[in-house]
Amino acid sequence: MFKQRSHDTHHGTHLPQIENDQGRYTIALLGDSLFERFKTTGENLSTNKNDKILNLGVGGDKIQNVQYRIDQGLLKSMKQHQQNIKLMYVHMGSNNLKKKGLRNEDAESYDTLIKEVRAEYPDIPIIITALFIQRGLGVDIIEEGNKALQKIADAHQCEFLPFGADQTGIMSDDNVHLNEFGYTEWNAILESDMKSRQMNISVVGERKGSGARFAIMYLLKVDS
């Protein structure tokens, strides 16, 4: 689904970033403003400062807008120019939430998108991150949405990363975006998850490669 900001950010910011720094990135963040605002509200945190992380968040994006960017060649460009992507996080769906939560048709759109991402990246961990409690919606509504995301993750050999039950004080005044404290908390969760998965990848590399030297070189490449 076309949205001007999605179109402009894709062609004016993300594609040049992908194409101009060949092989630079090892981790991709795909989604909406919750990821994008690591560049502003969360600018001093490791998720933003790590130059191996490719932030592909766009403010206001619904699931269908992220799909539009994929249809415009996002994944193909990544496959061509960023061959070192080893890990991907997905956060979207917040802008699709209604009073009764995530609609079936939006969950289906999410499923279709993840299926396409998995087809392009059959061998890397793809992590679907949880929806936050937001917009004055009941906890039960958000939990139902997250159950749908968990089901999608399971269907496509992805993993689901929860935030946790205690979300006190994490939202900004608009009750849509995270505040500085919220980003600090989320950053800690993401950073811990990234480190654990990078370690697991390095162990696999050691088994497939030529011993400890291979594993150590790979770790340095990911974490530097």
TrEMBL record:
It holds the Pfam family Lipase_GDSL_2. Residues 43-183 form the SGNH hydrolase-type esterase domain. GO terms for molecular function: phosphatidylcholine lysophospholipase activity. It comes from the Eukaryota. This is SGNH hydrolase-type esterase domain-containing protein. It comes from Fusarium sarcochroum. The lineage of its organism: Eukaryota, Fungi, Dikarya, Ascomycota, Pezizomycotina.
